[in-house]
Amino acid sequence: MAALDREARSQLEIADCVADALIGSVYAAEGATDLETRLSALAIEADHVVQGGSGSRSALEAQALTDLANDSLDGLCRRPFHWPLEFPEVFLRDTGGFDAFVGNPPFLGNRLWRSTNGQGLGRIVNMVLRVPPGKIDLCVAFHRRATTLLRDGGTYGLLATTNIAEGSALSVGLAKIVELGEIYSACKGMKWPGAASAVVAIVCFRKGPWIGPRNCEGHPCEKIGPRLEPEITDGWEPKALPCSIAAFEGVNNSKGMSFVITPEHPWFDRLKEEENSLLRPYITGDDITSSALTKVNRWALDIGERSLDEISAGWPTAHQFLLEVVKPTRTVEALKPYKGLHERWWQFWNHRAEQLVCLREKERFIAFPKAPKYPICILAPTLWIYTNKVVLIEAGRSDQYAICLSSVFRQWVRRFSVKSLGGDNNTLGLSISKAIVTFPYPEADVQLSSIEAAFGFQEVLTAWSSDNDAGMTDAMNAVHSPESINEDIKLMRDLLAQVDAGVGQAYGWSDLDLSHDFRVEENNEGGEVMRYGLEAKVEREALHRLIRLNRAQCEGFVPVAAAQVVSAANSGNYYSNGQTCLALGSPAPQPTATPSNIRAADPAVLVGTFLRSRGGFCGKKEIISATQLSDGQWNAAIKQLVADGGVVRQGEKRAARYKLVSGSDSNLMGLPGPSIGSGACPWEDAHIGG
Question: Mind listing the pLDDT tens digit for each residue in 177-203?
Fold first, then answer.
């Protein structure tokens, strides 16, 4: 018996040794190629060990110990836990895997788990997720791993951070998990019952179909989606709309605070008084939330893509400032993390020159602070400099500000942006890709009275902020407080209600009660909060409708320029609608377009159609996005148009912008035969983008 026991233990030790060597290879590998090489070598060595080679086993054990200590911050060897070896009876049965998991995985933010556990853990998380992890909490990997260790029909109940249902954590975590089964019980924000000031999520999941009742936040529902909310519209995740309004973050001024000066700076007056001065107000998200842009405390030079020689010739004072004040701080060592920046040290890391040229065709744009308590916007001057803590949205429609100010837009942004990682869960991290460019605009225009109400809100907001030495956050705190009876605050409430009425009418929501009042709601910590606005059930219904509209617009999209050219060839005219590039909710011809004949549409006509609809200068990226042309088609088309005089170019390289010359005809644009539509050129009736 003792001999049999020793033999059994010996066999288990061999399996442990090989498994340790496998995990050690993952920790020690310096990339995918190196890992593949190591695993190939391990397969040979493991075979020798299993065949009884004592020397091979000793060598493999030694290598495993070395590899498992690799990248360990304390220098100690890691001790892996091998599930199949510890529980062979679980994995060798017909339906291999555990029946259930219950637990509280470690809560470690992206930076913390990487810094405290080394790069090896990152590779293991990558293997668990099967994709690069991105910026996620470590608990997401535990949820994914638990799912793979469950048998079919098994369940788990695990705690998580609240942001497991948001952003990148959602796409690599719960969104993948629900593909394998169903969440049958969830709570997205439960206050920790102990002394810790924390809010957690609870996820209960079954691998496979669930036929029992479902409970979300203590309420029965038909299905729970990966956002840990009652699922709507068959789980559709809103997608970026091909012709959404242009939106981007402001400049990235990493390692560039020497550019920024205050009015007290010794260079301020000299730079401000220089002819055609480049000095501009320098605005962060905090400037919006704390002062509503009624104060300007900092300034910077608007260099953009200008060369040093150009600055020297046109602005000698600014050039001298750059050489004497900025250059000494822009050393090779300081700029090392920013590839190529040292060669253009006088510019911002990301100056957004191309986007700003287009934005500055108008005097004002819509500005959102990137990390606000309330996702509310303000009209701001386009000529100022805004950092990447501000989201800039072009005023592409006359009613753009009213729509962005509406409750439904703010609710959409709050739903699809990322909440803060702090325990209070009060602030957002506005997501352009998930929340801004996915928003579906109404086909109809918002009525004029509501547009004027939006502008009136701006005037009252800035006046109140100036009088009270306050900003947007303070103003919205007061709007939501019944104790605030200030006349300006009361007027702001009324104006926001007028905006919502007009936006609802533009969507055709005559059946929804869009009246505003004070509402008592439960916050993420279980307490009661007061807010002023739409009733919660109305907000939910509006959100459902917007999600359905996003889906309809995405699934109904055909690149409009191509579709119009094909339609024109078949029916003799063009069509357009309010939400440009989309044929939704209004009569339109039934295009016979197919992928082949869309591709066959003349690229020059597509470019001309788009430029005709925009009226002003546009960048390459914007044009290609709307026309769906390849780089090769774009290069050929724009070369032809510029050479023939149909399009004028402004600027060079990435800052190049293009505009259609007034009066260009169909022959100039390379379209054979008679003109199409009612105008002289083939895009006379086209309306694209914003």
Answer: 999 999 999 998 888 887 777 888 999
